[in-house]
Write a structure and sequence with these properties.
Shape: globular
Low-confidence stretches: 1-23, 266-274, 278-298
Largest sheet: 4 strands, antiparallel
Order of helices and strands: HHEEEEHEEEEHEEEEEHEEEEEE
Structural class: mainly beta
Strand content: 25-35%
Mean pLDDT: 77
Amino acid sequence: MKVFRGLVWLPALVVGCGGGGSGSAPPPPPPPPPPVPVTSTPVAEGDALLFERDTATPFSRSFGNVVTQMSDSELLSGGVAAADVDADGDVDFYVVGGNQAPNHFYRNRGDGTFEEVGSELGLDIIHWGSGPAFGDIDGDGDLDLFVGAVVGDPHHVFENRLDESEAQFVDITETTGIRLTSMNTVSATFFDYDRDGFVDLFLTHWSNHYDAGADTETVWRNNGNGTFTNTSIETGIAAALVEQNTDWTFTPNFSDIDDRLSFVEAALGIVERTQVVEGLSNDLVVLAEDRLPSGDRP
């Protein structure tokens, strides 16, 4: 109780000594303003966000591979890339999967319907395609295309020349310098990690086996002249991804999770973890977080 009275008396003494010689107490402070009422506008029943399957959309692609005869890599392959490729304001789709039918490109007509024009655009390749991604690799303002593949089938890099004399996509794989020895290239994403104005390419190679310290062929720096350089080792990515001599990475993503850029690899397989590789200071990265609890590690 003595301590409490001392704490009350001391500020009272200071106020009395600092009031211009008057012993009267200062007027009480004004009451705080009333709280601002919180209002909410109810959502009308018709405004609810609902999805339904659009059976009228002519996405007719199918392939005849027998599921029971497919390997794990083949089962996990395939994918869709969505972007406004022809710059008409509507999102188009590129669909890959299986090796019994050509890949399809569905042009958005802008009225809720699509037309398949893969052959017309030079994109009707047949392979165990996987993880397609659009990105402007040459900085000319239109979207080019990377298409991965599994079980040793070839990957492809296409340059968008829809507005040029070719009026289609042109396969420029051989001149890009992207040489892959990995049996599986499951997924891809474009991102300018070194901030030089050209998008770089990040690849995942699920179930590929590597020795410790080996090159994982994950990071491909865009040189700005139509070619790419493999920087997986020098950036530190390769060392951070291999688990038990195997690369289990499946989906590459970038996200600002702590006020600096992080490269997130979602892995799929026996490891079942998400690795966060953060910090691109001086173009180097480190493994920052392992989502799998230590007691659950294989």
